[in-house]
Amino acid sequence: MRHLIVAGFAAFALMLCAAAQAQTPAAAPAAQAPVREITKIAGEVYRFRNNGHYSVFAVTPAGIIATDPINAEAATWLKDEMKKRWPDKAIKFVVYSHDHADHISGGEVWADTATVIAQDNAKVAIIGEKRPTAVPQITFSDRATIELGGTVVELSYVGRNHSNNSLVMRFPKEKIAFAVDFIPVKGVAFRDFPDAYLDEWIESLRRVEAMDFDILAPGHGPLGTKADVTAFRNYLEDLRAQVLAAARAGKTLEETKKLVDLSKYKDWSGYEQMSQLNIEGVYRLVQATRRPNQ
Predict the structure, then answer these.
(1) Integer CA distances (angstroms), 119 to 49, 75, 84, 139, 188, in order
(2) CB half-sphere exposure, 174, CA atoms < 13 A
(3) CA 4, CA 241: separation in Å to the nearest integer?
(4) Shortest CA distance to 92 belongs to which of 110, 73, 118?
(5) Bridge partners of residue 48, in order along the sequence
(6) Extents of the domains making up the chain
(7) 142 Cβ partners below 8 Å, 6+ apart?
(8) Cβ neighbours for 205, distance < 8 A, ≥ 6 positions apart
(9) Under DSSP, is residue 4 helix (H, G, I), strand (E, B) or coil?
(10) C-alpha distances in angstroms, 258 versus 197, 235, 243, 255?
(11) Do 207 and 226 contact (CB within 8 A), yes or no?
(12) Does domain 2-16+32-182 have CATH number 3.30.540.10?
């Protein structure tokens, strides 16, 4: 009923006015309740929303395969909801998309029943940077496959991009791919490319384009398709080419920000807030390896 195959160079297993009248300070406004919901994607694969963050999970006859817990409160809510909807199903596996804390905090909430899996480099960062989550018990370098109750999830490390340990989790039967932060759907990149490897990022997107899937489930925003992977790769290539040309011409950052034209992406999410930061980040990255003739 429960089977795990881990393939790669390494696999390690260990066994998320009233105030004046009363003469008291005004009460602080109540904190807004988080938006949390579960929606079905296809088959028995579901998407979990916690405000602007998303993860996915699969329900099988032998238990549940979960992904990013997001944070301890969200993980607790989701665990309770699973118990209500599927009372005989425990979380058997948890897969971290990458090491960044805003997606994988709270893994300890599920670790009482689940085996935690991540890419090799993620475990190093989780331990080294003291992420507030359960440390992965199993890691792998390139590829791994989880099989539980007839459901298969293929885990692929496609190279460095938004981090050095981001995974694509593919559900082959349902033709769903879950990838976090490095493939936004109709959105620009995050801020100024922190923790990013630009050239390798573009190549990693080509590897995702070669995979067989119809539905792209990102870690933020709406569902997409494989066409959105291509669209974002084109955006990165366009951005890099324009910034590189300016850097090679000896332009300053401020001159580059005026020269680079990303207006064709003005309808994408994050454009107003982050397109200029995207230019700043790529300028920093290309300046690390390129210099004009002087």
Answers:
(1) 23, 21, 31, 5, 26
(2) 25
(3) 43
(4) 110
(5) 38, 55
(6) 2-16+32-182
(7) 7, 8, 9, 156, 157
(8) 161, 182, 183, 229, 230, 232, 233, 236
(9) strand
(10) 24, 18, 11, 5
(11) no
(12) no
Structure tokens of 242? 């324009």
C-alpha 148, offset from chain centre: 23
Do residues 87 and 58 touch, judged by C-beta distance below 8 A? no
Mean pLDDT, the chain, integer:
91
Distance CA 81, CA 275 (A): 38
Report CA-CA distances (Å) from 133 to 25, 97, 130, 219: 38, 13, 8, 18
State pLDDT tens for residues 243-269: 999 999 999 999 999 999 999 999 999
Q: H or E segment at 286?
A: helix 271-287
The encoded tokens of residue 61 equal 């006859």
Among 255, 261, 290, smallest CA distance to 275 is for 261
pLDDT tens, residue by residue, 156-182: 999 999 999 999 999 999 999 999 999
Structure tokens given for 260: 């680079």
